[in-house]
Amino acid sequence: MNDFGVSPERAAASRRAETLAWKINLLLDTIMSDSGKPFEYPVIKDAAMKEAGYYISRTRWSLLKAGREQLVSEETLRALATVFDVDPEYLLQEDGKLPERVEAELERLRTLRRAEVRSFVARALGPVDPEALEAIAKILDDGA
After folding, report:
1. What pLDDT sits at residue 143?
2. Residue 133 burial by CB count (10 A; 0-12/13-18/19+): exposed, middle or buried?
3. Average pLDDT for runs of 10 along the chain of length 144
């Protein structure tokens, strides 16, 4: 037991659930379904059943996304990994390499955000010395 009265096993299960929730939410934020739509519960449920033969209830899905589900079966992990086309181990690793699809989408989003900020700065500052604008762009690129 630790200072909070939580057993090491329960603490590990809680960390595992939190990691899984973080990974699920990252995937939801970055990957679109094959139909081009965001992954929402009906898409997840249908894909898990079609691709992995696994039924996931709305309640279980909500608990998984919130990091509240602490006993996650291997079958559940395999079904989710199949739906998102990732390695099941990725879903539980606290550290580790992001799937290429996720990394590519995050880079695309970073590029779009930088472009938005550059555009805003150019509009807000009005006519600016090209060297100053280049220096601002470099700061934005280096800080991202």
Report:
1. 62
2. middle
3. 72 87 88 76 93 94 89 90 88 80 78 76 74 77 64
| Residue range(s) defining the domain that contains residue 105 | 98-144
Q: Note the pLDDT of residue 95.
A: 79
User: How many domains are there within the chain?
Assistant: 2
Residues 102 and 59 in one domain: no
| Rounded Cα–Cα distance for residues 129 and 131 (Å) | 5
Residue 50 and residue 79: Cα distance in Å, rounded? 10
My answer on whether 92 and 121 are in the same domain is: no
Dist CA 95 CA 20 (whole Å): 12
d(CA 13, CA 107): 32
Q: Tell whether 70 and 89 lie within a shared domain.
A: yes
Note whether 68 and 142 are within 8 A (CB): no
Residues 60 and 89 reside in one and the same domain: yes
* Residues 74 and 143 occupy one common structural domain: no
Residue 77, pLDDT score: 92
Report whether 52 contacts 85 (CB < 8 A).
no
Supply the pLDDT for residue 2.
52
Rounded distance, CA 41 to CA 128, Å? 48
